Fold this sequence. Notes:
6-stranded mixed β-sheet; 32% helix; Aminopeptidase; alpha+beta; 4-stranded antiparallel β-sheet; 17 strands; 412 residues; Alpha-Beta Plaits
Amino acid sequence: MSAVTLLLISAVVLATAVAFFTWWSRRHGHAPPKSDTGARPPAGESGLWRMRTTVKDEPGSLAALCTALAGHRVDILSLQTHPLGADTVDEFLLRAPGALAADELDRAVSLAGGTGTWIERADAHDLVDAPTRVLGLATRTALDAAELPLALRQLLGRCTIRSLPARPPGGGRGTDGVPVEGVLEDTVMRLRAPEGGVITVERPYLPFTPTEFARARALVELDARLGPRVPRSDDVLTLPEGNDITIRRADTGDIEAAKAMHERCSPRTLGMRYHGPLGDVDRYLNHLLSPRFGRTLAARTASGRVVALGHLLWDGDETEVALLIEDDWQRRGLGGELLTRLVAMAVEANCASVYAVTQSSNTGMVAAMRGLNLPLDYQIEEGTLVVTARLDTAAVGSALPYDRPSRRFVRD
């Protein structure tokens, strides 16, 4: 191969690398997207927008911005300010003519002195004022420890939240701690979890402000002061053979009952659920039953023995569902009942989808997912099956199934 050929190849490789780096920087940089997606208003009607922009903290800057919006017949429904020293981040909820596009709105704001503008469609749920919304999130957190990650997501908008335990399930070195006051680094904040782990919140494109950081810390501190708590409500089911089964929320106080169920399960049943060495299955229970990482439902007999567990696990932007049914209680409809309730919780938490990881031979789990009557996606690799259910078509009532006592009959 000649030197000229090598030089040409090197030039092509370098150009490709530069192009990829440019694409990656645009995709992962802090430039906020101008989103015109979402529910568009009918022709002739107004539409709602959420907008955030940065202006100089000096007299007249906000007035210039409001004047520019008024020039496009845009009504300001709410305004929050986030001081940043020499600058101020202004967060608006706007009602604008339906024909006004995001690019036009961005151009008007830019000409009025706004920078780093972020715009996306809003809906009627955003009409609740900020203090009312924060109080509502605090109330939900106070009632249920599992609500903290969901409350943070609703408080901070579109973001990824991960709870990292002080000691990972299965053993090993835990994550590094953070100071009591937490750490704020541009688009990432890290907060000390009450149980000793770390809560990481990441929001691409839109850096967090000190005001948002203070709100998130206050919510975590409330959770820490209240301590472990899980709402206790019973839902009684009557099986076809006449047995009464009670379904209620479970937490780390149920670890011993869950371990006892493990001992009664066959190796095949445990293997279908945990996909790893059976000697380690008990180690996962502290993580699985912790309200910090999701919600767990337990099915109990009249004597109080746990015979089935259903888990809804927060996994960053995604949500996993998992079931474990004791061998003697399989094929009685318990899996479908637990899964229906877990999906109702996921819908209530505004999850877009849920996924289940199992083995391709686990016909019971596949049947339970199909019984949801939701759009499903199947992916299989080396015997591992991932079934994802989209929840955008799922309906849920104003109260979750475990929120009210009831008696239902389960059919096979």
